[in-house]
């Protein structure tokens, strides 16, 4: 580094904050550019640009056949909020995220605990837990959907055979908003389990054995050991699992699309399926974009609130 | 240091690759004229009617390209589910296909995207279309789309079930239908009297069958009228059928295709079907004892819902007009068109085609009802919105008052 740079950076730093900051000048940034440019390009290409197009479309008036007819200001947003079913859909989306993520995490905590113990055939059981992850979500959902189908679904047939349902063609699980939504939650939990379980399992592996042993020596029972010693150490793993699940579940379309797709009205819709209906049924790309922007903001708010309250980045 | 260098290089490579791939998607070659070879390329976007569709179009294209070596045709086949989003994406990306096979087209006319029909077919071909079909493709007196296929609906009746329930004759009026369907449903064992698909797949069709059968209408080229007193009797009759238990369970969210499969299995007394249903029964359950009769209406008068799909040509490049004309003239010649429409199991829209197929036994019940056919108001720019509103809302009639459902659909159409 030449002397002149040194002084100029000191002067610049002194001018702004009264003391030299380490490596904060524009010139340093310029020098770093060749190294961070590829990453910046990548972020711009796959994150910023599509998001920008989405924001842009949300303020345009786009015709049914897809032509841009000029600016529409915030009319599309007004239409989104004026839609009489918007708030029910909004609250259903929150229920969807909270229930799916909550149940998934609770079940995963148990599953991970079991898989952490050494028992014969553990490898095979661990493998079995991964399978829902390996299969496509649409495929898994389809299997459940057809299983629930009246007349020929095997789940329905089973329930009829054991006498729980008395109509010979079975019950229309996927034909009623309430039951279809409930079954969608079951499927969503099922497909979210592998990732969550393995994240927690990885967390369990980092809990030192001697700490657990020390707790035992001090006379702590299994429950006390778990809640006071093991669980606090899982905080990092749990935070990651919850955060990623929130984003993933909020944005999940295929499960609800398959399970509730033929149901009329908006009694089983979340924001994601509503965006899909705007595009597919009503051809309103502009309104769909506006709703996407709203969804994007909701996710940011949820994640920000979560980070603020739980402080997942803070060390234990 | 060396490690991070390699890492950066990898990221740079990945970024370049991503951006390059992405730019292919954005720009791309619209398949325009290849000046060097003097060849014209036509992009053809069609939906899949059956497993045969792709092969049928490929045969047409092979024959056409052999006769016109200076024209190449690119075929793209999409499912009906995806077709709308694919065409919308292509249009907004400035890559509309040259020839498109679809349903509602009035929106494209409003955006001035289509050639008038007379500009892309020879006068001979144009005069060969059945006049009523061509009239149904007119916006302000000019036809913008070419009829491709027609289908009419008729009532498929499971003779064995009706006999078992003690119904002597197939119903012709709503009262008879309600009576017959209730009796068949009473057989129990999961058997339904009337199969009523009001789910999102094709709610507008079943709605039309009932509302129009009671003297209603969806409107015309000037106005969409769903919330109209004339539509109420049909809507009330649907509720009466559901409340009487004359239909399968949960009609509001049952889709048509899976329900038709159950009819084919012999568990539904009566259901409205299409010409291709005949082929499905022959393949799935040839032993089914069924007959095809006209759709029962309020007063027993003849009525059927006609659906017509169209071919349309997008104005992309002035010098493609000739090539498009050649393609249409080739396609609609009786030798090419008749086998095509016959394999798909639909009804022909050309006079020469109707003549050639007049002896077909399977099509006869449909050709008989065709003169009374009524069509969707597809030349109204709002029809696409009405179609979508029916799909997402009409099934609620199962639980909501009929009038409320009609009002809600009208409101969504008017909001456009």
UniProtKB/TrEMBL annotation, chain A:
SUPFAM superfamilies for the chain: MetI-like
Source lineage: Bacteria, Bacillati, Actinomycetota, Actinomycetes, Micrococcales
Record's keyword annotation contains Ubl conjugation: no
Spans through the membrane: 35-56, 89-112, 124-145, 151-168, 180-205, 225-250, 287-307
Pfam families: BPD_transp_1
Compositionally biased spans, kind Low complexity: 1-18
Protein name per the record: Sugar ABC transporter permease
Gene Ontology biological process terms in this record: transmembrane transport
Annotated compartments: Cell membrane
A single Gene Ontology CC term: plasma membrane
UniProt KW keywords: Cell membrane, Membrane, Transmembrane, Transmembrane helix, Transport
UniProt feature coiled coil, ranges: none
InterPro entries assigned to the protein according to its UniProt record, in alphabetical order: MetI-like, MetI-like_sf, UgpAE/MalFG_permease
Domain ABC transmembrane type-1: 90-306
Family under the similarity heading: Belongs to the binding-protein-dependent transport system permease family.
Organism: Agromyces protaetiae
Membrane topology field: Multi-pass membrane protein
Recorded superkingdom: Bacteria
Region named Disordered: 1-23
UniProtKB/TrEMBL annotation, chain B:
Alphabetical UniProt keywords: Signal
Record-linked PROSITE patterns: PROKAR_LIPOPROTEIN (PS51257)
Pfam families per the UniProt record, alphabetical: SBP_bac_1
UniProt entry tagged with the keyword Signal: yes
Highest taxon above the source species: Bacteria
Secretion signal span: 1-22
InterPro entries: Bact_solute-bd_prot1 (IPR050490), SBP (IPR006059)
PANTHER family, sorted: ABC TRANSPORTER SUBSTRATE-BINDING PROTEIN, ARABINOSE-BINDING PROTEIN-RELATED
UniProt name for this protein: Extracellular solute-binding protein
Taxonomic path: Bacteria, Bacillati, Actinomycetota, Actinomycetes, Micrococcales
